[in-house]
Design a protein that fits this description.
This protein is an alpha+beta fold and 206 residues long. The protein is built from 7 helices and 8 strands. 41% of the residues lie in helices and 19% in strands. Strands 1, 2, 3, 4, 5, 6, 7 and 8 form an 8-stranded antiparallel β-sheet that branches.
């Protein structure tokens, strides 16, 4: 039910028909940063290809954290690099660590297909393209939120590179809200059943 609510919230918040009507999004959930668990829970109506690449998305963020350090509660990473667990540049990924008692319990993620992310043609489907740079902007894993504070300069850069900045902003906010809802519901689950019981159940699912 928690995953269904994440998807419903995103479809209600987005201004993008590809997300709102076609359901071109995914909300995977990953185990902790120190473990090599696979995806443990997903929205049941997402895109199968995105699902198959979900572990690579997690790894991209973990590699970034291991390199730079400084992971804090309230951080959210954003990226669309197709070589970091991606599909194409239109699919933007948000990844958020969930902390319990000062430690990372798991990661939540949201992937959504944005209408326009720059490139040579509107909508980014460019059969003439000979390299990914011609399809749109390429964003490596960077912090969109740091300790719960949005880095508005990142949003400004994203918006400036889209022909439809209002649509982009709506999709971005929808994904942020979905992660916030998912985190809140996960904490409710952990409060009710304890971290140990939930971890054991998730281990059985992998």
């Amino acid at each position: 039910m928690k995953k269904l609510l994440l998807g419903l919230l995103l479809t209600l918040c987005t201004t993008n028909l590809i997300v709102g009507q076609k359901s071109s999004f995914i909300h995977p959930e990953f185990k902790s940063i120190t473990e090599s668990h696979r995806v443990i829970a997903v929205v049941p109506f997402d895109i199968d290809l995105d699902l198959s690449l979900s572990e690579l998305k997690r790894r991209a963020v973990i590699d970034k954290v291991k390199k730079d350090g400084g992971l804090q509660e309230g951080d959210v990473f954003i990226f669309n690099d197709p070589y970091d667990g991606g599909t194409h540049l239109s699919d933007f990924r948000l990844v958020k660590p969930v902390f319990r008692r000062g430690k990372v319990f798991c990661f939540l993620a949201s992937v959504g297909h944005w209408h326009d992310v720059g490139g040579n043609v509107p909508g980014n489907y460019n059969p003439q393209a000979t390299e990914s740079f011609q399809e749109g902007m390429l964003i490596p894993p960077v912090k969109l939120f740091e300790a719960g504070v949005m880095k508005t300069d990142i949003v400004d850069i994203l918006s400036a590179n889209s022909r439809l900045p209002n649509s982009l902003y709506g999709d971005l906010n929808g994904q942020i809200n979905a992660l916030d809802l998912g985190e809140g519901r996960l904490h409710e689950l952990l409060d009710e059943y304890t971290e140990k019981s939930v971890s054991e159940a998730l281990t059985e699912l992998k």
